[in-house]
Amino acid sequence: MTDTPSSGAPDQTEWLTTSGGVRLRETDRSLKAGERGPTLLQDHHLREKITHFDHERIPERVVHARGAGAHGTFTAYGTAETVTSAGFLAEGRETPVFVRFSTVLGSRGSADTVRDTRGFATKFYTEEGTFDLVGNNIPVFFIQDGIKFPDIIHAGKPHPDREIPQAQSAHDTFWDFVSLHTEAQHHTLWNMSDRGIARSYRMMEGFGVHTFRLINAAGETSLAKFHWKPKLGVHGLLWEEAQMLGGFDPDFHRRDLADAIEAGAHPEWELGVQVFPDTPQQTYEGIDLLDPTKLVPEEIAPVQTIGRLVLDRNPDNFFAETEQVAFHVGNLVPGIDVTDDALMQARLFSYVDTQLTRLGGPNFNQIPVNRPHAPVNDMLRDGFHQDEVHRGVAPYHPNSLDAGCPFLAGDPQGAFLDNPVRVPETAKQREQPASFDDHFSQPRLFWLSMTPVEKQHIVAAYAFELGKVHEPAIRERQLQCLAEIAPDLCGGVAAALGLTAPSPKGELADPDPSPALSMLGGSYPPDGRTVGIVVGPDSPAEEIDGLCAALRGSLMMPMVVAPTAAPLGGDVAVQRTFSTARSVEFDALVVADGAAAVGSDPHVMLLVEEIFRHGKALLAWGNGVEVVATAGIAVPAPGVKAEESSSIAAAELPDLLGAHRSWERFALA
Ligand code: HDD
Q1: Where is the Catalase core domain (predicted)?
Q2: What's phi and psi for 35, nearest 5 deg?
Q3: Could you tell me which residues are beta bridge partners of residue 73?
Q4: Are 590 and 620 a contacting pair, CB within 8 Å?
C-alpha cells in the first residue's frame, strides 16, 4: 500500500539519453553564454525537454474522464455456446482483458467517491478480434435516444458560467433537465441509492445496459443483456463517508483497486446473460427490450453465468494504458451483434469519433493497450501517429498487383456477419414506440424492491441534492416526479425540504418487487478490506505483528494506527499516525491491548465514534476495551465486541466484514 508504482520504474542502470538516443552529459543546467549569461537557442536538449513537456497533456474524455484500470483474464464456462458462436465464450477459453472503471461527470482530477454512475468498460483481446463491453454499474440509462446525450451531459456537467460544481449532480441544471425529461427518472433513482456511492470498484455490478443480439453456430439468434456479478457483493459508502473521502482521500477507489491487486486480493466477477427470444416485437413479458431506461427483473429472466473475470495486474503506466485505452461499442466479434436500440446506434458513431480528438488521429488502435491480439491486416493507411510500415503497393480492393490479396473470409474462416435482421416496411420518422412514454413504473419497481434502510438513504440523498437546488420551481417539479414514482418517497423528501408533497397525477403501477435489486443481504469474502489497528506506545508488538500477518493471510489489509510513525516495538511498521488516520479509510477498527495508555486522545475518540456511527465492525481486546468505553460506546453491541485476544479478533473479522456493515445499528425512523 504505497503511492509508488509497483513496477515499470525507469531503468536506472542505463545512460540517460535524448529522444534520439544520444547520451547526455548534463540535464540540470542549460547551455548559456557564460555562467551568468543568457540561454542559447542552440541548446537542443533544453528545447527538446521543454517542448515535449509542453505537449504532455491530451484532452480528457468528454465524459468518464476520471478512472482507473487493470489487466486480467476472462475464462469462459462454455455455457453460452448454445446461444452464441463467439469463440472467447467457448468452454475453458482464456482471454486477456483490460478493464477501466470511471465516474461520468467529473474531470480527470476529480474525487472518486462523488455521487455518480460508474463506468465499467471491458476490452476482451479475443482471438477473433477485440470485443468491448462498454457498460455502467447501473442497468438503465438516462435517455432512450443517443441524440439526447449532449443534453444530459451538458445538464450534469458544471455550470458553464462559473464552471462549478465539479463532479456533482446536486445543482440546478441537472435537476432541471431530469425533472423535465422524465425518462431520466429511473436512472436518477439508482444514482440516489447507495449504488451511486460505491464502496469500491471491486464491489459493483456491471451492466451492458442495451439488449444485444447473439447468434449461435446454427445461425439462430436471441436477444440478451450482459451482467457482471462481483464476487465481493455490491456495497456502498454512506453519504457522509463519501463526502469525507472527497477530502481525506480523493483517490480512494483508484487506490483501493491498485492496493487490492498488489496485495493478491484479485477482484473477480462472473459474466452473466439474460437471454430472451428474438421475436419481431423485441419485448419480454411486456418490457420493450429496445428501451434502455427499462430493465428486466432477474426474477422473470434469471442471469445465467457464462464466465469469470479476474483482475490481477496493475497497469505499469497510467497514461500509456488507462488514459489511452479507447473503447468502442462497435468492437464486436462474430456471434455478438447490436440491436436497433437508438441509444446504442448513436454510440456506434460517438466512440471512434471522440478518439480522433482525444488521441490525435485515426491510428489509436496501434497504441499498445488498444492493439488487437488477433492478427490485423487492414487497408487503412497513413494518418497521424502511423506506427506501421505497410508493405505492398495496392491498399485497395480489388487489386491485381499485390496478388489480389488480402482475401475475404466467409463463415468457415470466422468472418463477422451483420445479422440479416428484417427491417419492417416503414416510413422515416423521428418517433418512438408508445411504451417508451412509461417513465415511472420501473422507478416504482426499484423503490418497492428496496429494504427500509436503503429507502432511508434514498430519501436522504434526494433531500441533499434538491436542498442544493436554488430554483424553487425545479424542486417542485422533481417532487411531482417523485409523487408519480411513490408517494412515501415523495413525502419523505418533501418533509426534509419543508415543502408540501404533491399528489400523483397519474395512476401508480403495481409491479412485483424484485429482491435482486436490493444491495443488502448475503455474506461475502473480506478480500482487500482495510482494518485499522489502534495501538498505544506499549501495545504488544509481537502480537500486533501476528494479527497483521493473520489478516493479510485472509487477504485483508491491516493498517497500524499509532501515536507516532516510529515502528512499534522497534520493528512493526506503522501506516497511520493519530493525526493522519481517519475512520473512512477503514472497513473495521480493532483497538489493541495497550491502547488505553493514549487516554481520550481526540483523534482516537473520533476514529472510534465514526466507525461506530457508520455501522462498521469495532473490536477490542485487553485494555483496548476501555478506549471504546471512553468514546461512549457500550460493549457489546451489534458488530461491537470485546475479544479475549487478537487471534479471536482476527477470526471474527471475516464474518463481520462479510455483511459489510452492522445494519442493526441504524435506527429507522
Ligand atoms: Fe458512453 C465513454 C458507458 C452512452 C459517448 N461511455 C464511456 C465510458 C463508459 C461509457 C464506461 C468510458 C470508457 C473508458 O473508460 O474509456 N455510455 C456508456 C453507457 C451508455 C453510454 C453504459 C449507455 C448505455 N456514451 C453514451 C452515448 C454517447 C456516449 C449515448 C453518445 C452518443 N461515451 C461516449 C463518448 C466517450 C464515452 C463521448 C467519452 C470517452 C470515450 O467515449 O472514449 O464517446
Answers
A1: 17-405
A2: -55, -40
A3: 96, 310
A4: yes
Instruction: Please name which of 524, 526, 521, 522 lies closest in space to residue 454, comparing C-alpha atoms.
Output: 521
Q: Is the CB of 351 under 6 A from ligand 1?
A: yes
The response to whether 351 counts as a known ligand-binding position is: yes
The answer to whether residues 197 and 115 touch, using CB atoms and an 8 Å cutoff, is yes
Contact 327, 93 (CB under 8 A): no
All structural domains of the chain: 67-370 (2.40.180.10), 453-517 (1.20.1370.20), 530-668 (3.40.50.880)
| Distance from chain centroid for Cα 426 | 40
Q: How far is the CA of 182 from the centre of ligand 1 (A)?
A: 21
pLDDT tens readout for residues 81-119: 999 999 999 999 999 999 999 999 999 999 999 999 999
> CA–CA separation, 486 vs 305, rounded Å?
33
Check the CA dihedral 618-621-624-630 and report its sign. positive
Ligand 1 atom closest to residue 208's alpha carbon, by position in its atom list: 22
Q: Which three cell numbers stand for residue 390?
A: 505497410
Tens-digit pLDDT profile for residues 266-322: 999 999 999 999 999 999 999 999 999 999 999 999 999 999 999 999 999 999 999
How much is the pLDDT for 424? 83
pTM for this predicted structure: 0.97
From CA 305, how far away is CA 77, in angstroms rounded?
8
ipTM of the complex: 0.99
Q: Confirm whether 399 is a catalytic residue.
A: no
Residue 175, phi then psi, degrees to nearest 5: -75, -25
Q: Cα angle at 121 between 327 and 374, to 5 degrees?
A: 55
Residues comprising the chain, all counted:
669
381 is in an annotated binding site: no
By C-alpha distance, which of 102, 100, 98, 101 is closest to 71? 98
Active site residue 314: no
474's grid cell: 425545479
Pocket test for ligand 1, best of 137, 227, 350, 357 (most atoms within 8 A of CB): 350
Would you tell me how many other CB atoms lie within 10 Å of the CB of residue 498? 7
How far apart are alpha carbons 407 and 364 in whole angstroms? Answer: 25
**Strand, coil or helix: what is 354?**
helix
**Which has the closest alpha carbon to 390: 403, 401, 381, 400?**
381
Q: What distance lies between CA 156 and its chain's CA centroid?
A: 18
Instruction: Write the pLDDT tens digit of every residue in 192-230.
Output: 999 999 999 999 999 999 999 999 999 999 999 999 999
Tell me the residue type at 331.
N
What pLDDT band is residue 667 in, cutting at 50, 70 and 90? confident
pLDDT at 647 over 90: yes
Q: Which atom of ligand 1 is nearest to the CA of 146?
A: 30
Helix or strand or coil: residue 221? strand
Q: How many CB atoms lie within 10 A of CB 587?
A: 25
Contacts of 142 (CB under 8 A, 6+ apart): 148, 152, 178, 181, 183, 184, 187, 188, 293
Enumerate residues 6+ apart whose C-beta is below 8 A from 660: 199, 233, 235, 524, 587
CA 59 to centroid of ligand 1, rounded, Å? 15
Render pLDDT for 519-546 as a digit per residue (tens, 0 to 9): 999 999 999 999 999 999 999 999 999 9
Pairing of strands 94-103, 287-288: unpaired
Between CA 207 and CA 138 the distance in angstroms is: 6
